[in-house]
Amino acid sequence: QVQLVESGGGLVQAGGSLRLSCAASGRTFSSYDMGWFRQAPEKEREFVAGIKDNGANTYYEDSVKGRFTISISRDNAKNVVYLQMNSLKPEDTAVYYCAAGLYLYGRNWYSSRKYDYWGQGTQVTVSS
Hints:
Elements: E1 3-7, E2 10-13, E3 18-25, E4 33-39, E5 46-51, E6 58-60, E7 68-75, E8 78-85, E9 94-101, E10 117-118, E11 122-127
Parallel strand pairs: 2-11
Antiparallel strand pairs: 1-3, 3-8, 4-5, 4-9, 5-6, 7-8, 9-10, 9-11
């Protein structure tokens, strides 16, 4: 069992930055690949970024490449996945979700159905 809790969302002006955190717990968390998704009103949930369980590889949706950075920290038994978001745009406005899945590869990263655990989401609003 894996529990995920997001934080760090808020209201920011266009061009600003936010850092989202996802605190993960559970005995088998270290085996999971991690992803961030987002869902805007009346739109489908979409993949934003992903990172392998060992942190060796990262993946990004095209519109956030060069602006967002995903990272993972496993210090002192605290497991946290971060999403650093820079140069934010109004179209980045959405609820952002942290998710965990096993053995993700290729196109599986982009499919929400391939993830087993989800956080409750955190709202990010970018004003123009």
